[in-house]
Input
Amino acid sequence: MDILQAAILGIVEGVTEYLPVSSTGHLLLTMKLMNLGQTASTKDATEAYAICIQAGAILAVAGLYFRRLRGIAEGLIGRNPEGLRLGINVITAFLPAVIAGLTLEKWIKKHLFGGGEMGLWPVVAAWLVGGLAILFIEWKRRKSNGQNRSTKSLSELTWKMALLIGTVQILAMWPGVSRSLATILGGLWAGLSLTAAVEFSFLLGLLTLSAATALDTLKYGGDILSIYGWQAPLTGMVTAMVSAALAVKWLVSYLQKHPLSVFGYYRIALAIVVAGFLIWPR
Output
């Protein structure tokens, strides 16, 4: 992996991490196109590298939502009741992913990741199904004409709603589903407004991604450094941080005036294009 490849992976990670399009799916596709991690000796290190550069995306959102995080921290030491409530809800939503991750991680990496026995097909299927789900939900929202639409703010979020969102997040363990998509749709299902669902998805992502990054760094940090050195991971994290900050700001601004439909169309189009390349005889 050269510096340019590391930067490309960082940009892909940062742009797609918080958009409902699946960063994992895009990284697996990008690594396939650049022929990275396609051998047994580099597979684990490359997949871990793709997870570890999430640290850049985590720092970006931590900076953008510092006020929320400070409120949670103050709540944990008894100085901010609303922050404490939000912090408890984030932790509650995080727990289902912990249980599922410890149970299913090895099976998922063996069978569903791009270097597994099924190649990119699980990712393509997830892109397609996720895209159709977005379009269906937006159709339902238009059909309701504002009636029965999710309207609750983060301050109205209960632990039961948070648990529902966290349970839906488990679906994102299937590469290509998108953690952001699962948690945003989970938030809408729980009754949050679109703005609140997106913000809670960001906050939950900080905890979920931090745990995944720390775990893979502990497991494969030595392999990453021995195979790729320190420059490639650092480049990936920096480019991921910058691109994630820009992507999050754009997403928040975009969703204030537009529905999620564009991401549904994008996922479906991407699934069709990649499926075509996979089927096309070489």
